[in-house]
Specification:
14 strands; alpha/beta; 492 residues; globular; 2 domains
């Protein structure tokens, strides 16, 4: 079977976009997420909004996929599978926007040449959460610099020098690393590196005035190379593709930046789910409270009730009602975005939870549940109480489910659910040791002891009116009725 390459495009039966004629984007990272998310959006904009943006992929670490990409002329097949808009989706598309593949470890001059290309306007990165870190170990003369901020600073300085500090040759930085304020933190790293290297005030002014460091929020589940299905998928496509990439249909990008950026980056005009905003924080809060919060509130009681995956929860009538009540009745009222946006996001979450191609194990979600409960659920309980003067019933129940999961659903045999399946909570050692000490206590004693531990929660949660009693009642129901019947009862 012939390997995917450009000469095959005219005869392909698989959908594909337009080949760009110029390089507009420098992309640090060649992994599955960037290819299934950013590159897919750029590919759509090239076809539907006339963007004509080629991507130059830069390999950010010594070992990567640049050679594999180059062997396929930058082409690869993206498969989107799941549900969207009430419809089943199983689409394949050859992505054609990757125009150049650069390994700075093998050809540093080719890397620097990107900075001198007058058409380049955007820089995208996904170098993991540890990538946006100032190390102080890079030198201006390194070929290449070890860290991502070091490489980026060298690229920016090369551009500044090549174009004499021209204001219209500044770049727009679009980091998608999963850290808060990723743009601001990347900018700080570049500024520190520039100061370390003594690059001068003129370069610092150019960074401030000509370049834009956006903070962004990304949301798409990318499962990557479908190893077990690859041979069959390639047979169906009619060619070999060693860079197959699979993801869910949902994909949303929130970009915090100046209003004019929407015109320069015409992703929305191409039908992509992109939000340009002056403040990314409300969208971050929405994702944490709705998507992550629903996961955390459901995983433990779902598992104790005999379910194993998010998909099984969606197929279970009571568990689905539980999730829907949490989303629509308890979490959404605590958020300040427009109601129609929140409802659309909630509907998308329910479709994503049903995706049969993403087997999301409840025990995986249950990892480190103490910190997740603190970050994702408790702030919503507080906000709901502040706005409504009462506790949210489902989310408060989830606190009791957390206690049951960590301290034992029957009060005597922790680590065993009702069907006899053994499990072990996974968390920090001191957290596990604390809850180990609560086993054998009554539900009320357990709730009061657990929630009064300010070291765990940042405050004494027994000071929240009614929370300890409500969590104790939930724990009691789980222990006396069993997790299955307790879930049925709370779901209504």
């Amino acid at each position: 079977m012939e390997r995917l390459n450009r000469s095959m495009l005219p005869a392909l039966q698989v959908a594909h976009g337009r080949m760009p004629t110029r390089t507009r984007v420098v992309q640090f990272g060649e992994g599955g997420f960037l290819r299934a998310f950013v590159d897919a959006m750029i590919d759509a904009a090239n076809e539907k909004a006339g963007m004509d943006a080629g991507v130059a992929v830069v390999q950010p670490i010594p070992r990567g996929l640049v050679e594999e990409l180059r062997a396929q002329d930058g082409l690869y097949t993206l498969i989107l599978r799941g549900r969207a808009g009430g419809q089943d989706v199983n689409d394949a598309r050859v992505i054609t926007c990757v125009r150049a593949c650069v390994d700075p470890y093998a050809d540093f001059d080719a890397f620097l040449a990107l900075a001198r290309d007058p058409d380049v306007r955007f820089v995208v990165s996904n170098t993991t959460e540890a990538g946006i870190v100032y190390t102080g170990k890079d030198a201006l003369d390194d070929r290449p610099q070890a860290s991502f901020p070091g490489k980026l600073t060298r690229l920016l300085y090369e551009r500044f020098t090549a174009f004499g500090g021209a204001q219209d040759k500044g770049l727009v930085l679009l980091p998608v690393e999963l850290i808060d304020d990723n743009g601001a933190r990347l900018k700080a790293c570049v500024e520190q590196t520039a100061a370390q290297w003594g690059l001068g005030e003129a370069f610092s002014r150019w960074l401030e005035e000509a370049c834009v460091f956006t903070s962004t929020l990304v949301d798409r589940i990318v499962t990557g190379y479908p190893r077990q299905e690859a041979q069959a998928l390639c047979a169906g496509l009619g060619y070999e593709d060693r860079l197959l990439d699979a993801a869910e249909p949902f994909g949303q990008w929130v970009i915090e930046g100046p209003a004019w950026l929407e015109d320069e980056l015409p992703l929305r005009r191409a039908g992509q789910d992109v939000r340009f905003t002056q403040d990314v924080r409300p969208y971050k809060l929405r994702k944490v409270r709705m998507l992550n919060g629903a996961h955390t509130a459901t995983a433990l009681i779902g598992y104790l009730a005999g379910l194993d995956t998010v998909g099984e929860c969606m197929a279970d009538a009571a568990a689905r009602r539980y999730v829907e009540r949490a989303l629509y009745e308890e979490i959404m009222p605590t958020l300040d975005l427009p109601r129609d946006e929140l409802e659309a996001f909630a509907a998308a979450i329910l479709e994503r939870f049903q995706n049969p191609y993403n087997r999301h194990e409840l025990l995986s979600i249950a990892l480190n549940s103490q910190s997740k409960l603190r970050a994702r659920v408790l702030p919503t309980i507080r906000a709901y109480w502040t706005r409504r003067g009462e506790l949210p019933r489902v989310l408060t129940f989830s606190v009791g489910a957390f206690l049951a999961f960590y301290c034992g659903a029957d009060g005597a045999a922790p680590g065993v659910r009702a069907d006899g399946t053994a499990y072990a909570p996974v968390d920090d050692a001191d957290v596990l040791a604390f809850f180990e000490g609560l086993r054998g206590l009554s539900p009320l004693e357990t709730a009061r002891a657990a929630l009064s531990n300010a070291a765990l929660w940042g405050e004494d949660l027994t000071a929240w009116p009614g929370l300890a009693d409500a969590a104790a009642q939930a724990l009691s129901d789980i222990r006396t009725l069993g997790a299955r019947r307790a879930l049925d009862a709370i779901a209504g």
